[in-house]
Amino acid sequence: MEELIKTIVQSLVDFPDEVQVNEEIRSKEITYNLSVHKDDMGKVIGKQGRVAKAIRTVVYAAASAEQKRVYLEIVDR
């Protein structure tokens, strides 16, 4: 899942080497924390959050086979 997120986001940003995805596993949920270069934050979020919503939709669809809830958080460094 981390590779899927990286692949999607690296194609959108100007600094693809600075894309980081960290996974936090809890008993019934998995949270992926995505961080990018500060200048790329707007590209990942998009106008009115549309790009972020599209990325989350793809990630949630890919994770539907797992028995845990999956979340994607875009975090600031």
Walkthrough of the structure:
It holds the Pfam family KH_KhpA-B. It comes from Bacillus solimangrovi. Keywords: Cell shape, Cell wall biogenesis/degradation, Chaperone, Cytoplasm, RNA-binding. Belongs to the KhpA RNA-binding protein family. Forms a complex with KhpB. This protein is of the alpha+beta class and 77 residues long. The chain has a single domain (2-74), classed as K homology (KH) domain (GMP Synthetase, Chain A, domain 3, 2-Layer Sandwich). The protein has three helices and three strands; from the N terminus they run αββααβ. It has helices spanning 2-10, 41-45, 50-62; strands spanning 20-25, 29-35, 69-74. The chain has a three-stranded mixed sheet. The model has no long low-confidence stretch (mean pLDDT 94).
Keywords:
3 helices, GMP Synthetase, Chain A, domain 3, 35% helix, alpha+beta, three-stranded mixed β-sheet, 3 strands, chaperone, 77 residues, RNA-binding protein KhpA, cell wall biogenesis/degradation
